[in-house]
Design goal:
Number of strands of chain B: 8
Radius of gyration of chain B: 26 Å
Largest interface: A-B, 23 and 20 residues
CATH topology of the largest domain in chain B: Alpha-Beta Plaits
Strand content of chain B: 5-15%
CATH class of the largest domain in chain B: Alpha Beta
Oligomer: heterodimer
Order of helices and strands of chain B: HHHHEHHEEHEEHHEEHE
Strand content of chain A: under 5%
Number of domains of chain A: 1
Number of domains of chain B: 2
Shape of chain A: globular
Helix content of chain A: over 70%
Distance between the termini of chain A: 12 Å
Order of helices and strands of chain A: HHHHHHHH
Chain lengths: ~190, ~270
């Protein structure tokens, strides 16, 4: 049990997908204009990542690896992720239309969010068990959500800042993201477990 | 052999996911109004928000439910209004193409300033500081809040006054809603004449702070052959239903406040 907790803590803070590994930077920059939308995006990614981690882990260990087809894992994983994203898109359109409209183009783009595929591939690479894979996928997505919500909060304040003209808009957002990433490097000094 | 197994696995995987999605699409089906979809396809798709809705899709939905009139899209003009009306099965009223016009001619040279503004580069921020740097309470602040918001890039600030490029302007009215001074108006596209001042101060006061402010001398009123121009609240205003674009008012105006807009590049105006 404690191993799982260590794994989760490490996935959220030390190996944070955005600030340490730089996965999933596209939605990180794209959907962080408003904290509410950022939270919605984070929740959508959390759902997709948790379920896709579970499905891809099973798919790999039970089907692809025994049959010697592990060279096809990326294609298979993308297929699963694309299917899941389609599913969540229909789900949101039906039950949470406001979030569906707010996420807009970034919802189908979760398909190509490298954080989701990254989580699936890390699970395989590290040889995580089924439980560990689900825990890792879930907590990596939590880390992603935390990062994007923090950043959206900062960006909401950036709108009122008065940076020099060349830095306005995206440049100052990128610099800010870099500074937050540097702050998160503090966690990498921690040794746990 | 290997390749057959691989193909089979992927066929099964695809079929399973496909089946799941097919079930989900039935379970989570959202009824889509066919009319709304058809209307979206004829709208310009600029999502400018000029109609007051969040985008073309939102307007289409409102029209299909009868909450908005067929001619709500100012950008599309008459052509789109007719197409929408056809989908809705009603006859559309004739809509007139509009364009935005900034009702101020107080350039940096002509208008007096109270102070030098060095704050955030936005009219709305400047408004907070005693109503902006120009002495005239109804003068263009020249920081381009309208230009930033214009979805078509049709506004440019020249010499301290926002200027609309008539050919790029689609008449969506986003700038009209943005301008903190409320000095941008939508006027019929074909009308040439406009009064470049909105100062409601008395003539002498206006004269004291702007070289091109309306002093309500009423010369335009007297010279207008159709009675389209009247001076009210110390500023001239044009009734575009009556105006015949003769340009007499612009010619006679002693302060050169009434302009004869040039709609084509090779015209002088």
């Amino acid at each position: 049990m404690s191993e799982i907790l260590v794994l989760m803590f490490s996935a959220i803070f030390i190996e944070n997908f955005i600030f340490a590994k730089f996965y999933g930077c596209c939605p990180f920059m794209g959907v962080s204009e408003k904290p509410a939308n950022a939270l919605g995006m984070g929740m959508a990614v959390t759902f997709v990542m948790t379920v896709s981690s579970a499905v891809t882990q099973l798919l790999y260990t039970k089907v692809l690896f025994p049959l010697g087809l592990d060279y096809l894992k990326i294609i298979a994983f993308i297929l699963v992720i694309a299917g899941l994203v389609q599913f969540i898109e229909m789900f949101l359109k039906k039950f949470v239309p406001s979030l569906y409209n707010a996420l807009g183009i970034f919802l189908p783009l979760i398909t190509t969010n490298c954080a989701v595929l990254g989580a699936a591939l890390v699970n395989i690479q590290e040889g995580y068990s089924f439980i560990e894979s689900v825990a890792f996928g879930f907590s990596a997505a939590l880390g992603f959500t935390m990062a994007i919500v923090i950043f959206a909060g900062v960006r909401a304040r950036l709108k009122f800042a008065d940076p020099p003209k060349p830095f306005r808009g995206m440049p100052i957002a990128l610099i800010t993201a870099g500074l937050i990433a540097m702050a998160f490097m503090g966690f990498s000094g921690m040794s746990i477990g | 052999m290997d390749i057959l197994i691989a193909a089979l696995i992927f066929a099964v995987l695809g079929a399973v996911i496909g089946a799941l999605l097919a079930v989900a699409s039935k379970a989570f089906e959202v009824p889509v109004d066919e009319k709304a979809e058809n209307i979206v396809s004829v709208l310009p798709g600029a999502n400018c928000g000029g109609c007051g809705y969040s985008g073309c899709a939102a307007l289409a939905e409102a029209i299909s439910k009868g909450k908005a009139p067929c001619g709500s899209c100012t950008v599309g003009g008459d052509e789109v209004a007719q197409a929408v009306a056809e989908i809705m099965g009603v006859k559309a009223e004739k809509t007139v193409r509009m364009r935005a016009q900034v009702m101020c001619s107080g350039t940096l040279e002509k208008a007096k300033h109270k102070y030098i503004y060095e704050g955030i580069d936005n009219c709305i921020a400047a408004m907070q500081l005693g109503g902006g740097s120009k002495v005239c309470p109804n003068g263009c602040l020249g920081l381009g809040a309208c230009a930033q918001k214009c979805p078509f890039g049709a506004i440019e600030v020249i010499d301290g006054v926002a200027k609309v490029d008539y050919h790029k302007c689609k008449g969506c009215g986003v700038c009209v809603a943005t301008c903190p001074k409320h000095i941008i108006k939508l006027v019929p596209f074909d009308s040439r004449v406009y009064v470049g001042c909105m100062s409601v101060d008395k003539g002498a006061v206006t004269k004291s702070y702007c070289e091109s402010g309306c002093i309500s001398c009423r010369i335009c009123e007297k010279n207008c052959p159709t009675g389209a121009i009247t001076v009210k609240d110390f500023v001239a205003s044009i009734d575009y239903d009556k105006c015949i674009n003769c340009g007499k008012c612009a010619e006679k105006c002693p302060r050169k406040v009434i302009h004869f807009a040039k709609l084509k590049d090779n015209e002088n105006g």
